[in-house]
């Protein structure tokens, strides 16, 4: 019975995680559209510390969409392990990329389509190999986990690094280095996931009739979650305002997911209950998603489609045939062959010599 219940919870968490990605992926587009409208009006931009976006309805629509996604994500953590829920955030990257091509005039080329396919395949592999059950079921167990020395050290380092980035590095390099604001969002996000997981357990216990409101951990997790989420929203807005959405989204996903997986390994120790092939499968799926996201955005400005592929091959063939024909003409004229070969060798670049160009013959 418990195994059947665990499978049922796993499926619920999976559906909630996928719906969360759809809402969050759409929220990036709505918020970016709102920020672009403000920039055209000449308002102080969020990247410069302005808060004019609070008067823009598109930004609020994006915030509501993200809120719906976060609620679904919140509920997903109550039913499924963080090792499964967090990496499925890659689907929000796909939604964001597809919607960007329609509403932000960002093209999705062949590399992007292959990247989408790889991300979907990687997500599928992670779903297959993810742990099927969660070990932490009560707030008392969660309190014991949060008091573990390993997690205390991890949380302390996260807070110290975040404060250094916010007050020292951010004012100097935040406008030019994309990693500054995104790193703040990502590492703080690891702590917010822990808070969400704890509150999810509290909600399940509340509906089971247990006195969770009397447990001090419930009142610690709520303000901690508010602080973490507020910080994430603030610095994610700054990153979106300054840099391209198609760059911010994948980098944020990779750093955020890595931070959460690290936090999950330290806090919940889910990896200790997984077989070796499941661990390998989970990491392989995650790396496949990263490769897919890289292809999706690294070559987004390259105009390359399936229709261009035969044309590119024909150009390469013509270039090779042209070189061979010029050599043949030179060799057919005995009196001019020495001069012709000398000219070909003189125009040969050092790189061509190293690569073994045909003219060397």
TrEMBL record:
One of its GO terms (molecular function) is magnesium ion transmembrane transporter activity. The chain crosses the membrane at residues 12-30, 57-79, 85-104, 111-130, 150-171, 178-203, 215-235, 247-267, 279-299. Residues 342-361 are annotated as: Disordered. It is a multi-pass membrane protein. It is found in: Membrane. Keywords: Membrane, Transmembrane, Transmembrane helix. Pfam families: Mg_trans_NIPA. GO terms for cellular component: membrane. The keyword RNA-binding does not apply. Belongs to the NIPA family. This is Magnesium transporter NIPA2. It comes from Patagioenas fasciata monilis.
């Amino acid at each position: 019975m418990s195994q059947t219940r665990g499978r049922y919870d796993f499926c619920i968490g999976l559906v909630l995680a996928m719906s969360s990605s759809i809402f969050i992926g759409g929220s990036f587009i709505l918020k970016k559209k709102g920020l672009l409208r403000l920039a055209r009006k000449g308002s102080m931009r969020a990247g410069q510390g302005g808060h004019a976006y609070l008067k823009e309805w598109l930004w609020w629509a994006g915030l509501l969409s993200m809120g719906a996604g976060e609620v679904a994500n919140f509920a997903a953590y109550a039913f499924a392990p963080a090792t499964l829920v967090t990496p499925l955030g890659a689907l929000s990257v796909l939604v964001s990329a597809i919607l960007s091509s329609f509403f932000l005039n960002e093209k999705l080329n062949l590399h992007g389509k292959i990247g989408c396919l790889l991300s979907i395949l990687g997500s599928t592999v992670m779903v297959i190999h993810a742990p099927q059950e969660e070990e932490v079921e009560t707030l008392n167990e969660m309190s014991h986990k949060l008091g573990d020395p390993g997690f205390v050290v991890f949380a302390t380092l996260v807070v110290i690094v975040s404060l250094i980035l916010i007050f020292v590095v951010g004012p100097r390099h935040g406008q030019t280095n994309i990693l500054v604001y995104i790193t703040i969002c990502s590492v703080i996000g690891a702590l917010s996931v822990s808070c969400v997981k704890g509150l999810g357990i509290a909600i399940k216990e509340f509906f089971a009739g247990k006195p969770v409101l009397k447990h001090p951990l419930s009142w610690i997790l709520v303000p901690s979650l508010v602080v973490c989420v507020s910080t994430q929203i603030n610095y994610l807005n700054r990153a979106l305002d300054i840099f391209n959405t198609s760059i911010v989204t994948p980098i944020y996903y990779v750093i955020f997911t890595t931070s959460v997986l690290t936090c999950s390994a330290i806090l919940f120790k889910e990896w200790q209950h997984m077989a070796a092939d499941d661990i390998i499968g989970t990491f392989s799926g995650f790396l496949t998603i990263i490769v897919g996201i890289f292809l999706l955005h690294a070559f987004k400005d390259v105009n390359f489609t399936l229709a261009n592929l035969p044309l590119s091959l024909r150009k390469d063939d013509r270039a090779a045939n042209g070189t061979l024909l010029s050599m043949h003409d030179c060799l057919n004229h005995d009196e001019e062959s020495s001069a012709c070969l000398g000219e070909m060798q003189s125009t040969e670049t050092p790189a061509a010599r190293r690569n073994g160009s045909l003219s060397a013959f």
